[in-house]
Write a structure and sequence with these properties.
With 616 residues, the protein is α+β, with helices and mostly antiparallel strands. It has a nine-stranded antiparallel beta sheet. Strands 6-5-11-17-15 form a five-stranded antiparallel beta sheet, with no helix packed on it. α3 crosses α15 and α13 (542-554) packs antiparallel against α14. The longest helix has 20 residues, at 383-402. The protein is elongated and about 80 Å long.
Length: 616
Amino acid sequence: MITQLAGNGRILLTLNDFGEWTDLFYPYPGQFQHLRQMRLGVYDVDQRSFCWLRPGSGFQHEVPKSVVGSFPTSVWTGHGLTLSLEEIVHPNHDLVLRILRFQSPDARRLRIFSYQSFKIAESLYQETAYVDPSASSLVHYKRGYYFEFFGDPAFDAAICGEHTLKGLEGSYVDAEDGRLEGRPIAHGAADSVMQWNLELHPNVEATVRIFLAVGLGEAAVHELRDDVRARGPKRFESESKAYWGAWATRHVPERPDGLGEAAERLGRQSVLMLKLATATTGAIVASPDTRSLVEGGDTYNYCWFRDGGYISEAMDESRLQELSSRFLQFASLCQSPDGSFVHRFFPDGVVGSTWHPPPFLQIDQTATVLSAACHHLDRGADPDDLLELWPMVKLAANFLVDFRDPTTGLPAPSFDIWEERRAIHTYSSAAVAHGLESAARIASVLGKENPRWQAAAEEIRARAVREMWDSSLSRFVRSIGPRDERIDSSILLALDLGLLEPSDPRFRATVELTEARLWSKAAGGLARYEGDEYYGHENPWVVCTMWLAATHLKLGNRSRCRELIDWVVAHATPTGLLPEQVDARTGEAKSATPLVWSHATFLDIVSRYRETANAS
């Protein structure tokens, strides 16, 4: 599972529980994942002993809790040696820096090995790896993607080999006797090993810096390599730390009264998560986790406009308005000619995979983009920004007005928020009404006339209450056409979007019934809906629990809202990452971790909690 991340909007690096690199995305977060395996090895020359820094190696491993402004770190101790690692992605150069610091109470002679294999452009073959002795560098490339390693100090030896094909394990086995004997170039399923010779003096730290320049073309990585050497390797380390320190100072959220330090730490990590998940294109990848590839055949490495819209609103609350603006610009480029937004997109703006038949619609996605644009305006965006987005807003709003079921007047059938069922949904209807109200507000601010959007919003909301509230059950059904009476937490989000006023008795009744039925007795937290079997039976989700918090806050129940915030804090990973859901039996993180929407919803509710405190 991912425990730590670093990135710059083009590169996104993830690490697992043991400080190993697991994913290396480029040229955007979520696209493409180029890494197959990285590992570090230590050979004691005098003892003639070797081990890879992995579980069972005799080393104890620790991953400190992440703090915004710092970098992924890990510490290995054992065999009389302490090794600390720090991973840095430069903010504006496509450069990864891995800093290894060694210390021992005794004099030691060591050989340090770094093994790497790629699946460039997400395939294992047709790759070349070669050692360039004239530049003391090691290059992997395929097509236009280049990855060049070099060090400070320069490596003492490097070899290339192969893995997977021909029954070969990989050239890492060449390091295990402490001597590299491979060749300087390999192709096909290529891999490589670099070696540094170290002499440790008692209690004196020795440092090795491993640089990885990433680029689209050979010239790009060579130029970056030469720039690092000309300006000094330490310069790039200090630049990165200065930038992230300044960034954290500007964007760390204020801790509201009544919330503890753990909530503050999670807030910091959540703001950082929003930044790391956003590509330079403006796409916001739902999660960098790729584990679902094995079980589900696909990943969360896409931009959904529902997730992105709600994340964009959290960005505005977290002083990340520039990222929110960039997302809305990305949306305008991905909009369909009819004004809608289809299922999901790759970070480069190409339509992603889907399991929905044409027209690939979840109608709430189109509505959420409009709501995000209005929220961006309300949180201080320049009207010029919205004027630029006006063609998108107009097209989307007109689509929503026309995409109506002729019998009910509600939004026509589309897939639900959970992407599972095609029908007319309570939440989707509320989302469309809210989106049209948002579009009408934007039109008003910009001096545009379009009264039918506000009228359509009011009509859809009224019809949704009339059609979806079942007086015999004394509650909302979640959908009609076909009818589905299961209790669904998304109706809480519908309430939060204005389906009912908090003073309406049905508002409180819906909150109380939903909490009573979907609250997990063992783990706490709120499940998605009755009978949910995704990754377990009725597992609680972070976003659902925060929707419950939002409705309690609207009812004036600040204490219950705070308890729900605390539940989310308690179920973050030790390094402050929020999963999509937690196991209803054990409370352990399940499915995609981190889920950016989870972090965004947490930030949103904490912001609202703070606002209610300031207003009282």
